C-alpha cells in the first residue's frame, strides 16, 4: 500500500497539513496531492488518473454541503472518498455514507485513526464511526436522482442553486446558452422538479445539519 497517490482536499492550510502528516506517518511512501477548493479538486482528479483515494473536507470554496462528494462519485466512481470533517453529527455521518462515501473520519479523532481508515478503504472496505442516526429514505431517493446527472449537469445544477440565469451559467462554465438550456431541461426531468426553484431546494438539502462553524 506504500505506492499510492492520495488527494487531500481541505481549504484550511493547518488542518490540511495535519491530515497530510498523519497520512505520511501511516503510509511513508505515499504521494500526496493537495487542493483547497471544489474547482481545484475537479481539476486534480481530471489531470491525475493515478489518484486512488480522496480525503475530502465538506466545507471548501465552491462546495455546497455534500456536493463535492456527489460530484466525485459521479465523475470518478472508481475513486473512493473518505470524508474528513469537524462536523461529526451522527446524521452527517449517515448522510455521507448514503451519498457514497467509503469512510468518515472526525477531525477530532486520534491521528492513528486516519491510518486505520485509509488502510480499510484501500483494501476495498469501509470505515465509519458508530452511528445512531437511522437511514433516510429521502436521502436515498435524492442520491439516486442526483446520480443520474452527468458531471456537467451537476455543475449547472450548482449554478442554478446560486440563482444564476442561463446566460450567467453559460459564462461561468464556458458553454453556449442553448447548451445550458438543454442541460437545465434534462436536470429538471431527472430530478423530477417542475421549476428551477425546486431544483435549488434539492441542493439546499445537501447541506449537513449543524454545519455552522463546521470545517474549521
Low-confidence sequence ranges: 210-216
Lateral strand order in the biggest sheet: 2-1-3-4-5
- The CATH homologous superfamily of the largest domain is named Response regulator
Distance between the termini: 30 Å
Shape: globular
Percentage of residues in strands: 5-15%
Number of strands: 5
Helical amount among residues, as a percent range? 40-55%
- H/I helix tally: 10
CATH architecture descriptor name of the largest domain: 3-Layer(aba) Sandwich
Largest sheet at a glance? Answer: 5 strands, parallel
Number of domains: 2
**H-E order:** EHEHEHEHEHHHHHH
Quaternary structure state of the chains depicted: single chain
CATH third-tier fold name of the largest domain: Rossmann fold
Cα radius of gyration in angstroms: 17 Å
Q: Class of the largest domain, according to the CATH hierarchy?
A: Alpha Beta
The overall pLDDT average reads 87
Q: Class by helix and strand content?
A: alpha/beta
